[in-house]
Amino acid sequence: MTGFALRTTGLVRRFGDLRALDEVYLDIPYGQVVSLVGPSGCGKSTLLRCLTYLDPPDDGFIEVGGDWLGRERLSNGTIRRRSRRDIDRVRRKIGMVFQALNLWPHMSVLDNLSVAQRVALGRSEAEAESRARALLDRLRISEIADAFPGQISGGQQQRVAIARAMAMDPEILLFDEPTSALDPELVGEVLRLLKEFAQSGMTMLVVTHELAFARDVADRLLFMDRGRILADGPPQQVITQTRDRRVRDFFDKVTAFHPKFMQAAAETEDES
Ligand SMILES: Nc1ncnc2c1ncn2[C@@H]1O[C@H](COP(=O)(O)OP(=O)(O)OP(=O)(O)O)[C@@H](O)[C@H]1O
Ligand SMILES: [Mg+2]
Asked: Which ligand is closest in space to the CA of residue 13?
């Protein structure tokens, strides 16, 4: 596949006078792993919600795998709103793993993974189940297929949520702070999993506070502040070489807070 898994043009989301997204331009090629960081309230979650049309943007355009989501701009410049049905079709190409896990509590893990495949993609029960089992296997949680979400650990729930998003074969997977609700020992586990996906060529946009992930796994790091992307480039370069004062301040604070961070990153590099 060539081209972009995701592309946004001048995306705007307003809440009253606040521009939570203030013209976001973003192109993500297939296979790229992008980390998004920025201070609390800068618009990261709003961006992910707009990208999935859970919260439609007020202005701008989104393209997923070359398909317009919500609004389209024709070659003669005309702007058209697309039908609800069409929006539902295109947004299915985006997988989202939320920070607050939202597994259905009354369904087994296997059903959590199968239902949307059957309803939204029209897969047969056997097909959906076989895809679900393959993913559980891949995420090393096949033993919990018949358990209910309340019976499994936080780390397992997080993996089920990831498997559920992947079961839909999305063009791109979005993660909103996938490790923030986890105990420290589970953080490493989920990060390793994301690293495996990255290596298998999955396109991902990951909002994270784990700078080590951004630094060691992502191909690209975005820094957002007040609804705008202020820095965009190879992670190491964005972290250490940005001139913009707001970006510098942010990374200075984070690296001062985690003094071992840059050192650990350097050691990882030595090993490889
Ligand atoms: N539904 C809403 N109504 C009004 N304001 C909102 C709404 N959702 C978000 N906001 C505001 O938009 C801004 C961006 O919020 P958002 O949740 O995207 O931040 P964030 O970068 O994800 O922060 P965090 O790191 O704390 O998760 C904030 O000022 C927030 O208060
Ligand atoms: Mg958020």
From this structure: 1
Please tell me the distance from the alpha carbon of residue 20 to that of residue 23, in angstroms, as a whole number.
Answer: 10
Ligand 1 contact, 20 CB (< 6 A): yes
The CA angle 37-26-4, to the nearest 5 degrees, is 120
- CB distance 224 to ligand 1 below 6 Å: no
What is the position in ligand 1's atom list of the atom closest to the CA of 47? 18
Other C-beta atoms within 10 Å of 251: how many?
20
Q: How many CB atoms lie within 10 A of CB 152?
A: 18
- Tell me the domain boundaries of the chain: 4-93+170-271, 99-169
Quote the pLDDT of residue 257: 62
pLDDT of 125 strictly over 50: yes
- Ligand nearest the Cα atom of residue 41: 1
State the Cα–Cα distance between residues 226 and 230, nearest whole angstrom.
9
Long-range contacts of 73-77 (CB under 8 A, 24+ apart): none
Residue located nearest, by CA, to atom 1 of ligand 1: 15
- The model's confidence at residue 244, banded by pLDDT at 50, 70 and 90, is confident
pLDDT in tens, 21-80: 999 999 999 999 999 999 999 999 999 999 999 899 999 999 999 999 999 999 998 999
- State the pTM of this model: 0.88
CATH topology for 4-93+170-271 is: Rossmann fold (3.40.50)
Is-contact 141 156, C-beta < 8 A? yes
Q: What is the DSSP letter of 83?
A: P
* Residue pointed to by tokens 């997988």: 95
The first and second tokens of residue 162, run together, are: 């990831």
Residue 267 clears pLDDT 60, i.e. is over it: no
Is the beta carbon of 46 within 6 A of some atom in ligand 1? yes
Give just the sign of the alpha carbon dihedral 191, 192, 197, 200.
positive
